[in-house]
C-alpha cells in the first residue's frame, strides 16, 4: 500500500471485504459487531441491522447461530474453527481469530465463514456414487462370471450382493471360510464362486461330502494310503482327496457330520497344511484353500461335545451365512426367470409363467430354498403341455401359500385307501423335491430310501 493515502487504503480494503466470497465478521471483545460483509449476511441469513444491534450472545439466544465461534475465542483466546448451522439451515465452517491489545487482552475477533452446505451435499452425492460404483463392480464381476464358469449365479437381493462382495474379498486371500445356511441355499455354489475368483482358480476344486463317507474310510479317503496299508487297499497306494485338492480348494460339505474320531486329524492337517497317508511315514506338504459348509448349528454341536471346539474356531475364520430364500425374496423371480430360460433352451420349449404364478412363487416360504424352486420349476415345465403355465399346474401346498398345510381340504370322491395313497405320494414327492434326493428325503422323514422307492413304484401304478 506504499504511496496510497489512508482513505484510499480503507476504500481498497472495503472493496476487497465486500467482494469476498467468504463471510467476514469483525466483533469487539464484548461480542458487538463492528463490521459484517455482504457475503456474511447472505450465507448466514442475517440482516446487517440485526447483526449491528445485537450482541453475539443475543444472536445465539435468538437462534441465529447454533453456536458461536466468537464466544469460544473469547473463552480460549486462541484461533478456533467450528462447524455451525445458521438459522437459514446453511452449514458454516467458521474460523475466529483474536487480535490482541498491548496488555495481552483481546481487542477484536475476526470471523471468517464459508458456506459448506454445497460441499456437504457433494460429499453425500459422492458417497452415493461410490456405493453405486461398488454395486456396479459386483454386477461386473457377476457379468464376467456369466461369460465364464458360473453363468447361473443369481444375486439380486441386497443380502446376496453383500455376500458376493465379501466373497470376492476373501477370494483374494487364502483364509479358511465357513459357509452356513439352510439346505439348498447355495453353499456349494458360493464355495465354487470363491474358488473361481481366487488366485488358485486354475487349480482343482474338490468337494468332499462329509455326510456320505463311512467313518471307517474317512482317513484313507482324506489322506490317502501307501501301498499295502490295509487289506483290500490298491497295490499302488492311493492319493487322498486333500492331496488331489493341492494347489486348489477343498470344499468340506456338511462338515458337521464329520466323525469325532477324524476331527483331530483334520485339525492337524488344516493347521500345518500337511498330511501323512495311512500306512506311510512321509509327511506331504499341501498348499490349498479350505472352505467348509454346514446347515446344522455347529456351536450347538460344540456344546454337545459332538464337534471339537478347536476345529470349529480353525474353520470359522471368515464366517459367511447365506440367508434362506424367504429372507431375500428379491432373488425369487430372477432365479425363476433364469431357470425357465435354461430349461426352455435345453428342451427347445417356449414356456412362460403367468403373473399369478409368479405372485404365488413370491409368497411361498420355500423351506427347501433354491433347490426346491429349481425342482418345482423343472417339474411344472416338463409336465405341462401348454406354453403359458398358470396356477392350476402348481402343487396344492403352493396354492395355499403355507408350508406343510394339509393339501386335501375336501374329501373328494376317493375311497379311504386311495386318498391315503394320494397323500403319502404327495408327501414323498415333496420331501424329495425339498431335499434334492431320495436318500436325503429318507433321512429327513426317518425312513429307508428303499421304502420310499418301493412306495413310489406302488403309487405310480395305483394312481395312474
Ligand atoms: N445364487 C444362486 N443362483 C443360481 N442358482 C443357485 C444359487 N444358489 C443355489 N443355486 C442352485 O440351487 C441348488 C442348491 O444349491 P447348493 O447345492 O449349492 O446348496 P447347498 O446350500 O450347498 O445345499 P445342501 O446344504 O443341501 O448341500 C443348486 O442346483 C444350485 O445350483
From TrEMBL:
<dbReference type="GO" id="GO:0005524">
    <property type="term" value="F:ATP binding"/>
</dbReference>
<dbReference type="InterPro" id="IPR009057">
    <property type="entry name" value="Homeodomain-like_sf"/>
</dbReference>
<keyword id="KW-0175">Coiled coil</keyword>
<feature type="domain" description="Sigma-54 factor interaction">
    <location>
        <begin position="153"/>
        <end position="382"/>
    </location>
</feature>
<keyword id="KW-0238">DNA-binding</keyword>
<keyword id="KW-0547">Nucleotide-binding</keyword>
<keyword id="KW-0067">ATP-binding</keyword>
<dbReference type="InterPro" id="IPR000014">
    <property type="entry name" value="PAS"/>
</dbReference>
<dbReference type="InterPro" id="IPR002078">
    <property type="entry name" value="Sigma_54_int"/>
</dbReference>
<dbReference type="InterPro" id="IPR035965">
    <property type="entry name" value="PAS-like_dom_sf"/>
</dbReference>
<dbReference type="InterPro" id="IPR002197">
    <property type="entry name" value="HTH_Fis"/>
</dbReference>
<dbReference type="Pfam" id="PF25601">
    <property type="entry name" value="AAA_lid_14"/>
</dbReference>
<feature type="domain" description="PAS">
    <location>
        <begin position="9"/>
        <end position="60"/>
    </location>
</feature>
<dbReference type="InterPro" id="IPR058031">
    <property type="entry name" value="AAA_lid_NorR"/>
</dbReference>
<dbReference type="GO" id="GO:0006355">
    <property type="term" value="P:regulation of DNA-templated transcription"/>
</dbReference>
<dbReference type="Pfam" id="PF02954">
    <property type="entry name" value="HTH_8"/>
</dbReference>
<dbReference type="InterPro" id="IPR027417">
    <property type="entry name" value="P-loop_NTPase"/>
</dbReference>
<dbReference type="InterPro" id="IPR013656">
    <property type="entry name" value="PAS_4"/>
</dbReference>
<feature type="coiled-coil region">
    <location>
        <begin position="119"/>
        <end position="146"/>
    </location>
</feature>
<dbReference type="Pfam" id="PF00158">
    <property type="entry name" value="Sigma54_activat"/>
</dbReference>
<keyword id="KW-0805">Transcription regulation</keyword>
<protein>
    <submittedName>
        <fullName>Sigma 54-interacting transcriptional regulator</fullName>
    </submittedName>
</protein>
<dbReference type="InterPro" id="IPR000700">
    <property type="entry name" value="PAS-assoc_C"/>
</dbReference>
<dbReference type="InterPro" id="IPR025944">
    <property type="entry name" value="Sigma_54_int_dom_CS"/>
</dbReference>
<dbReference type="InterPro" id="IPR003593">
    <property type="entry name" value="AAA+_ATPase"/>
</dbReference>
<dbReference type="InterPro" id="IPR025662">
    <property type="entry name" value="Sigma_54_int_dom_ATP-bd_1"/>
</dbReference>
<dbReference type="GO" id="GO:0043565">
    <property type="term" value="F:sequence-specific DNA binding"/>
</dbReference>
<keyword id="KW-0804">Transcription</keyword>
<dbReference type="Pfam" id="PF08448">
    <property type="entry name" value="PAS_4"/>
</dbReference>
<feature type="domain" description="PAC">
    <location>
        <begin position="76"/>
        <end position="128"/>
    </location>
</feature>
<dbReference type="InterPro" id="IPR025943">
    <property type="entry name" value="Sigma_54_int_dom_ATP-bd_2"/>
</dbReference>
